[in-house]
Structures are given as structure tokens and as C-alpha cells.
Amino acid sequence: MSLIAFMGAIETGLLFGLVALGVYISFRILDFPDLTVDGSFPLGAALSASAIVAGINPWLATALAIGGGALAGALTAWLNVRLKILHLLASILVMIAPYSVNLRIMGKPNVALLGETTLLTPVENWAMPYYFSIPLAFALLLVVIMGLLCLFLKSEIGLSMRATGSNSRMARAQGIATGWMTILGMALANALVALAGALFAQSQGSADVTMGVGVIVIGLAAVIGGEAIMSTRTVVLAVIACVLGAILYRLAIAFALNADFIGLKAQDLNLITALLVTVAIVLPGLRKSWFGKRQGANP
Amino acid sequence: MMTPIKRSLLTLASSALLTLAATGLQAADKHLAITQIVEHPALDAVRQGVQDELAERGYSVGTNLKWSYESAQGSPATAAQIAKKFAGESPDVIVAIATPSAQAAAASARGIPLVFTAVTDPVGAKLVKGLDQPGRFITGMTDMSPINKHMALVKAVVPGAQRLGVIYNPGEANSVSLVTLVNEEAPKQGMSVVEAAATKSSDVQTAARSLVGKVDAIYLPTDNTVISALEAIIKVAEQNRIPVITGDTDSVARGAVAAQGFNYYEVGRQTGIMVARILKGESPADMPVEGVERVELFVNPGAAQRMGITLDSALVDSAKSVVE
Predict the structure, then answer these.
(1) Which of B54, B100, B107, B185 could be disulfide-bonded to B59 (CB atoms 3.0-4.6 Å)?
(2) Least CB–CB distance from B74: residue in A2, A5, A213
């Protein structure tokens, strides 16, 4: 694997780390199976790309994307909490709707950003090759976001949100407005995913309406993979695990792309993804039963 | 004494060694890396065309040409990683098939000659500044249909047509560019345009039905969603006697009246010529973006009859292929 390919995998991994954090909030903290991300990822890309092409400051454009993602997430939660639509179905509705919305926003299926001034333009002028500077910038951003997320999850609101996810009836009995907590958490989750979409469009040079396909699978693979490789006993560890999972996933893809010697090709990627996720899901259980047996043998 | 099995194994091993040594000596004079967004018959044909054209020009895969091919399987994130993989390998030329792969390669390749192909609107996709002067390290081929010719064909097939129906998927970048052009060109031939959108193949029949009574002819651009559900349109068209003209020649054998198109294998051949020129030392910055040169007319008189018209005999005579 070349250095550029390796750093490229890190770069994409860090971006999908944001997606993983979003998925962690919805799936793990709120216990809300949320497919909205397949829609909020391209929504973030579409909003930021269209705004940048229209001459809006890239920071503002990216903020717009974050806002759009938050709205999408809040909408999914609102459909579930207020209109009592099954959570999976609610998220599917908000997953497909952005397709049309994105076409309206962009006015066409693909908005090119090659040569435009984006958030990453100044980063490329840092005193190092672009394939170092962009991952470094993403890493710095991610550290800040992970820190803020940990602080938030340990705050009173964050604790209420965690209580909502783990036992909503008990949480309600404690006077927590669980409906609002769900809406807030889902908005936060999809804001992170939309930010990832916006940054992905800016680093890849285009926003495309088909961009969201499979984002949820990558996010889940990252969360579950992260949980498989390290302990997630505390919130801080869990957040780190998500991001590590995302990076490992992209490294696995890069490895598959470079694994000509064992006969793996890009054509096999989807299969590898499925295998990876399956192994990641099964592994913790196996480890437990293995340790369990050993303890049984030596009491 | 060697047993026969041992001896044949030895021969096998030594011949394998010899082959290895031989390829090792000749291998990899030039390196071409090819990235494709998804496996798809048209895009695969482009790739085959590139390979065949290069072979004809003395670059054959495995002997004096190293050929790295990756497909992103529809995922832009993977396309980005493929682009970075290739950027790290510094091949002599990168060939990118279809717009998302080309954009990813353009963002990563930085200075490695890049030839895009099967891209409809390279200026809109910001791959090049202008078709005549690409200016950077990027050039390639556009597969934009010659819509003016197609509109003239509609008029030749249905001389009285005043209202033209167009069915397309608004989610396909290609189709949107094509329909924009149809809206510009059709009025020049005295036709107004009625659009019908289908975002997935199961919507195509509904879209076709929505045109019944509103149009005198239906034109189908080279839209993957629509062409994959062509039979649904043919059925509606035959029932309601509306002639169907397309930009996709394969559709004629499936029941469309006429098409004036190109095949993607030829697009690949023409791309291969550009790649060979770069391998010989030309700079992509000096090579204008090329359009498809060979357009062929396909007609189907039987389908015309089923759709209530008779094809002009001069038109049928000028066709490259007449489907009986």
C-alpha cells in the first residue's frame, strides 16, 4: 500500500468517524434504529456544495449543512414521537425524502467543487503534502468534536438522553421529557452525519445525489467493529471506539484494494463488508464464551 | 531414478519459472490505471474498447503494459480511495470511467495524466475549463448524444410531430443534461417538449402513460433507468400508436422505431487512441476533449407499423442496421 493510499484511507476513515459518532448516538444511546443517515449524508453534501458554488462562505455553507442534517434528524424523531410512526419506518421516510430535496437544492444530480474555494483550500496550503494536511485537519476537528460530545454526554441533558435510551419509562418517571430528548439526540446525530457529507463533498470535489447509498452500513460497521476491538465501558471509550472502528473499516477497504496478491479485487468489497460486520458482531460473544469456559475450568 | 510424476512436476516448475522470468523481463514498460464507478454493461464495454485499441497499437496487457483496474461498486467513498491508491502508484496514465470516478481522480491525481471517458458534461463536472483547451493534466471523451441530430431524426420519422414526449430520470446527471439540450433543440425543429419523470424503473410505465394523448412522438435519451424498462414504454406506445425514437441503438431491436446512437465499445476505442497518444509522450493539456465520432442509424419498420406510421424508404436505405 502506498503512503498516499494509506493516508487516503485514514482521511476517509476520519470522515466516516463522524458518521459513526452519529450512528452511535442514535443506535446505542437512544436505541433508535435510524436509517435517516443515508439521506442526511448527501443532504449535507448537497447543501454545502450548492452554497459554495453560489458564492457563500464555506464556513457558513458547512454550517448550513449541519443545520439541514439536524432538521432531518429532528423530523425523523418527531414523526416517531409525536405522530407515533414506528421508528424504523419514520427513518425510512426521512431517508428517501432528501433525494428529491437534494435534486431541488442542487438543481441537478451532481454539483462539482473542483477548483472552488472550500474549507480545505487553506488546509492544502499548510507546509506539508496535501495527503498529510487534510487527514491532520480532519483528525484535529474530530478530537474537538469527540471532546465536546463526551462533555455533552456527561452533562445533565446528556445523562437524561442516555436514560431515555436505556429505559424510557423509568426516565419519564424521573421527570425527563423523553420525547424532546429523542428529538434532540436525533438532531445531533444527523447533524454530525451531514457535517461528514459536507466535508466529504469538499474533499472529493463533488456532491452527487447518489452519495448516501450504504452510508448507514458503513456507520454500523464502524460502531460494531469499534465495540469488537475495545472495551466501551465508559462514554469516552465508546466514542473513541466508534472512530477507531471507522478508520479500521476504511483501512480494510484499502487493504482489499491492494490485496491483489491474495486475489481480492474491488468487486469483492461488498462481500468483505458483510463478512467484516458479521465477524465484528460475533466476536464479542465468542470471546465471552471462551473466557467463560476457562473460568469454569479453573474456578 | 525419478518417478514420472516427479519428473513432470519438475518440468512444470521449471517451465513456470521460465514464464515468470520471461514476463519479468518484458513486463510493465508502461502502467495504466483504470477506475470505474460501477460494473455496468456500457461502462464495461468502454473498458474493453480501451484495452483492445491499446493492444492494436502495440500495448498489450500483461506483456508491455501493466493494467490496474478497480471498480468502486457504486460507492463514492470507495471511488475516492481508489483514486488515492492510484495517485500513490504514479502510473503513466489514469483512465476514469464515468463522472464520479473522474471527479475523484481529478481531486487526487494531481499531475498524473488523466483521461476521463463516458462523462457527459466535463465542463459542468469541472474536469476541464473548456472542451478545446483542457489546460491541466486532464482530457478525455464526452459521451454527450448529438441531440440536434436526434431531433432531426424525430422529424424524419414523424414529419407531422409537434409535441414531443421525453421520459427520463431526474436523478441521472446525464439525462438532465440531455433533456436540457432537448428543450433547446426541439423548438428549432418546431416541436414543443412534454417531460415525464421516472426516478426508478418501476415508475417508467406510469410516466409513459402520462404522455398518452399529449404527444405525437416519444424520445428517450440514453437514460439507464428508462432504457432498462424500455418494454413498458413500447407496450404503452404500441397500444396508443405513438412512435418511439431513442438515442440508444440497442433499443431498436427491443421494439423502438429508430435510433441514432453510438455504442460504448467505440467510445472505448476512441479513448484508447487518446491514451496511446499520451503514452507516446503527448501532453493531455494540449489535447482537446473529443466527442463521439461514429453515429449509426438503426431502424425497425415492423415497430413503426405497430406504432401507426410508415418509415420513409430513403431513411430505411440509409440505416446501418434494419431490424426485421
Answers:
(1) B54
(2) A213
Contact list in B for residue A16 (CB cut-off 8 A) is 77
**Identity at B165, one-letter amino acid code:** G
Reading the block at residue A122, the C-alpha cell is: 487553506
Beta-carbon pairs below 8 A across chains A and B: 134
What is the Cα–Cα distance from B296 to B160, expressed in whole angstroms? 24
Chain B hits for A202, Cβ within 8 Å: none
Mutate to test the interface with B, among A53, A104, A110 (most CBs of B within 10 A): A110
Residues in chain B within 8 Å Cβ distance of A116: 126
> What is Dmax (Cα atoms) for chain B?
90
Percentage of chain B beyond pLDDT 90 is: 60
| Percentages of chain A per state (helix, strand, coil), in multiples of 5 | 80, 0, 20
DSSP annotation of B294: -
Find where cell 466476536 sits. Answer: A283
Q: Report H helices in B193-241.
A: 204-211, 224-228, 230-240
CB B194 within 8 A of CB B214: yes
Cell of A278: 458479521
Residue B17 is predicted with a pLDDT of: 45
Q: How large a percentage of chain B has pLDDT more than 70?
A: 91
Q: Quickly count: other Cβ atoms within 10 Å of residue B16's Cβ.
A: 10
Measured at the alpha carbon of residue A284, what is the angle toward residues A278 and A285, in degrees to the nearest 5? 90
pLDDT of B219 reads 97
Cα–Cα dist A13/A7, whole Å: 9
Exposed / middle / buried, residue A237 (Cβ in 10 Å: 0-12, 13-18, 19+): middle
B-proximal residues of A, 171-200, CB under 8 Å:
200
Task: Check if A255 contacts B (Cβ < 8 Å).
Answer: no
Q: Does A276 touch chain B (CB under 8 A)?
A: no
Nearest CB neighbour to B103, from listed A7, A116, A204: A204
* Nearest-neighbour CA in chain A from B126: distance (Å): 6
| Low-confidence stretches of chain A (pLDDT beneath 50) | 296-299
Are the Cβ atoms of B104 and A112 closer than 8 angstroms?
A: no
A116 burial via Cβ count (<10 Å: 0-12, 13-18, 19+): middle
Predicted model pTM: 0.79
Q: What is the pLDDT of residues B147-198, one digit of tens each?
A: 988 999 999 999 999 999 999 999 887 788 899 999 999 999 999 999 999 9
Residues of chain B with pLDDT under 70: 1-28
Residue pair A72/A182 in contact by the 8 Å Cβ criterion: no
Residue numbers in A near B77 (CB within 8 A):
12, 16, 200, 218, 250
Where b means 16+ CB within 10 Å and e means fewer, A215-234 reads: bbbbbbbbbbbbbbeeebee
CA A145 to chain CA centroid, nearest Å? 12
Cβ of A161 under 8 Å from any chain B Cβ? no
Q: What is the DSSP letter of B27?
A: -
- Chain B nearest CA to A32, separation (Å): 25
